[in-house]
Here is the input.
Amino acid sequence: MLIVNTILWCAPFYVLGVVRLLVPIERWRRAMNGLLRRLAEGWIQCNSLLLELVHEIEWDVRGLDGLCHDARYLISCNHQTWADIPILQRTFNRRIPFIRFFLKQELIWVPLLGLAWWFLDYPFMKRYSRQTLERRPGLRGRDLESTRKACEKFQDGPVSLLNFLEGSRFTAAKHAHQQSPYRNLLRPKAGGMAFVLDAMGGSLRSLLDVTIVYPNGAPDFWEFLAGGLDRVIVLVEERPIPQELLGGDYLGDGSFREQFRAWIEDLWKQKDERLATEAGAHPLLIVRGRENIVDRTGRTLVALRAFLEQRLALFGDYEDVLSSEHAVMYHSVLSPLLNFGLLTPQRVVQAALAHAAYHEVPLNSLEGFVRQVIGWREFVRGVWRALPASHWQQSFWGHDRRLTAHWYDATTGIPPLDDAIRRAAATAVSAFSAFSFPGVSSEWLSKRLSASSYRRSRARSTCCST
Here is the structure.
């Protein structure tokens, strides 16, 4: 729906953009710029309405009082996912001036949006790697010059410039590689913000310090579009930018650079504490009922969070325990959600690592669970895809006896196995594999276990191992 909405809005947007270019009159271009911004705000408003209608997202937004649509703001925000951008747009649309942010030059080729960003005067930056600068020293300072040129368009009138100080989306791997001193943030890159303040000539005096919290884990962009976000917290705090930090020489003045970094690091420490506090302040969304795997709305993140909060810490101690009374025990019961594509192995592992970063999770539980996902589940899936179908029709041990009806009516005489078979028929959960079939009725599963599966097993000779 969001993609369709974007396509529909692009047609009038492109027409106005081309008309603005064809008439080289400054007053005309300013008028067209105003219309383009209104169109962009209308597009954002429609996106927000679609999110409200299609997705069940619980919004907790604080700190919007006192914001002005005619002001000039510099916005700083933590960055966890591409979903941060539509969330910020929904939060601030028509409350503050239209938000722009710095983009890599390569993003101008993004279908539909790249040209729209260009028409809206988003500043495109060409960044050079350290290796490139070492080979071509003459390129040093080009990025700063492009920053100044981009900011010249925003010298007059209301403006909101967004800066992600981390410079990249947060991941556990990046966090570990940087050896970040913050629990929930990457190291901030203060230079980018200093260059923007310098390029704007001291005209930006208010900082909107924004913290986005995903209590049930940050979705990637496609999960966000598919409804994988159920709750988000947006904390906004307006802060004055210290007068002594406006217009300084960040590169040439070591004293100013240290002062600016100290200010940024103080902001980042406070943001890290807010993230930790908000993540721990919201009680577990307990899944109630008969050990349900997901709640009635089918929100998969509830199941993931329930495992992390309730069972991960003891997963290692009781990973192989079977019970005649409890179907789930300390298993994750996430296999069906992974198999159906509602969760990805990467998302599950990252969530477990992030949870363990500020909760007491024993090493045997964390390692045991990650190994089950990567070292067992993904390994077997890779083998299954790599080997031909004929491989799975063979019996390595030469077993050719057909399974009897006992394996389907729970009369094998092996109590743990019979319990698992009965439970699978009754609740669609098997303790042997921590596998479940959400949405499958007991009647349907019982019929398949007692009829079609049995006939299929008699039609094809397979080996069986307990």
Residues 389-466 form one domain. The chain has four domains: 1-54, 57-281, 283-386, 389-466. The chain is about 50% helix and 10% strand. The two ends are 48 Å apart (CA to CA).
